[in-house]
Amino acid sequence: MVSIPTATWHRASKAESAEYLRLVAVPDGAKKSQLKKNSVLCIGEEQPKNWFTELQVLKGHFDIVRFLVQIDDSRYASAGDDGLVLVWNIETGEKLLEMRGHSQQITAMATLTRVSGDTPHTSLVTASSDRSLSLWDPDTGNRVQTISDLQSSVKRTSEDVFCVPQCLLVLERRSVWLSGGAELCVWNIDFQLQCQRQNHSDIGITALVELPKNCIAAAMDKEIVIYRLTASADRSLSLAEVRCLSDHQDNIRTLIPVNDGLFASGSHVGELILWDSSDWNIMAYEHILWEESQADTQSEIRLGSPKPCEMSIQHLTTNGTLILAAVGSGLYVYSILTKTVVAYRRAAHDSNILHTMLLSDSELMSCSEDGSVRMWEMQDLPLPAEVASPGFFGMWSFGRASKQTEPPVRKITEVPNIRTLELTGDLIGHSGAVQMFLSFGEQGLVTCSTDHLMILWKNGERQSHLRSVALFNKLEANEGLPLVG
Asked: Tens digits of per-residue pLDDT, 185-197?
């Protein structure tokens, strides 16, 4: 057994780190169980491309930690099902503030920056299942503003629908922010309601994206509704629905901006749609199919019977030129320029992937319900190529999947220059599903999990160098002083 205080840095082999965290990285009272299942992929202890060789376990939450938000270059905030908002120092792992106020789980968190004179100040906005919105000052820990008892005027059956905000979107250039749920509400930076729109979706608004020409895209069930925000002569704001996009066949799980001219959406049945941000037309449509598809004489594409969780696009991320899609336990990299898949790994984790990030045009990272955080590198496929289903991203089209005019399905290995994703690092530490991670570049990586913990991962060589420099500076400052004792 490795005995190390959880509040200090630990530099050890991968095997030692895994054994240590198997024993300590579980919530109090929880059963200490096996950390990881037998993985489809495994990587040895020697991981030369994995620079995360030091870690620090951070305790402070007592329920699932779901959200991480960067405040500035040295601080970030965490929040989750315990209703707490905690502020941390990225360099030291020190908990700086603990902010209490919500009585139920936090459903969304975002930063809100206002400029006073020439000095910007960043605050935190949180939404909660307790039907409240709060504004926090991460410098003082004070709850500056709060809006309680949000209640929708939409009637369903015989009861009012309580408005639980599910997502937040800050429009910095207009000094307003939006909350989505049973209603779409627009607020100013002083937490005053400017305007609102009711929706009749049972699920409500689950994602929001800012578009050009003062427009906003809102995901509701299978549809994306486009709203336009306008200001009248007296500066009052109003929301108008201008278009409804109904091209998805199932519930939309994720909605992201891609660049100034495009945004993307992913659905529960593996549909990835690329949209024009100005006219809202479909620029590309891809359908990720997991089973062998049989085309009839009319080249109609038929789905097999995959499990819904294996098809669902759980998360999308982009760097403006590539889109990384987490589909079930698989990863797919899609080129916006060529509108083709450029790399893929069908079984990247043992369970559903919850969060992804493109580190560069060839490196990426993912985390999963299996408790792992993995680093990947795009490499050329070996020969013979990995066998792939003809259904992966099988439709190269500009319309809905139901159309009969779709071109024949091509196997993914027939796509020129297709590459695979090779595992280069495996960060083993959490004993529960890793919800998301937040990168501070060379300063480190933060992960959060259902095990109530966060882990701060560091570059061991960099940390060793910084400690050496600090020790040298301390000795130099004390040079010439008489020795004590």
From this structure: 999 988 999 999 8
Residue 316: CB atoms within 10 Å: 22
**Amino acid found at 382:** P
Both tokens assigned to 198: 């009711």
Burial 31-54 (b: 16+ CB within 10 A, else e): eeeebbeebeeebeeebeebbbbb
- Is the separation of the CB atoms in 309 and 352 below 8 Å? yes
Of 371, 367, 381, 458, the C-alpha closest to 416 is 381
Question: Which run of H or E residues covers position 14?
Answer: helix 14-24
Count other Cβ atoms within 10 Å, centred on residue 30.
Answer: 11
What SS3 class is residue 10?
Answer: strand
What's the Cα-to-Cα distance from 202 to each of 31, 185, 222, 312, rounded to whole Å?
A: 37, 17, 11, 20
Closest among 321, 216, 222 to 271, alpha carbons compared: 222
For residue 212, give every residue at least 6 positions away whose Cβ sits within 8 Å of its Cβ, in sequence order, or none: 260, 277, 278
Give 297's contacts (C-beta < 8 A, 6+ positions apart): none
pLDDT in tens, 294-337: 333 333 333 344 555 678 999 999 999 999 999 999 999 999 99
pTM, 2 dp = 0.81
**Pair 445, 47: CB distance under 8 Å:** no
In order, the DSSP letters of 183-224 are EEEEEETTS-EEEEEE---SS-EEEEEEETTTEEEEEETTEE
Q: Which residue in 27, 42, 31 sits closest to 370, CA to CA?
A: 42
For residue 382, the model assigns a pLDDT of 66
Contacts 24+ apart (CB under 8 A), 408-412: 408/295, 408/299, 409/293, 409/295, 409/301, 412/341, 412/344, 412/388
Instruction: Please list, in sequence order, all residues whose beta carbon lies within 8 angstroms of the beta carbon of residue 251, skipping any fewer than 6 positions away.
Output: 203, 221, 222, 267, 268
Write the pLDDT tens digit of every residue in 10-57: 444 444 444 444 443 433 433 333 434 445 577 777 788 898 989 999
- 8-state DSSP, 442: G
DSSP symbol at 127? E
CB-count exposure of residue 303 (10 Å: 0-12, 13-18, 19+) = middle
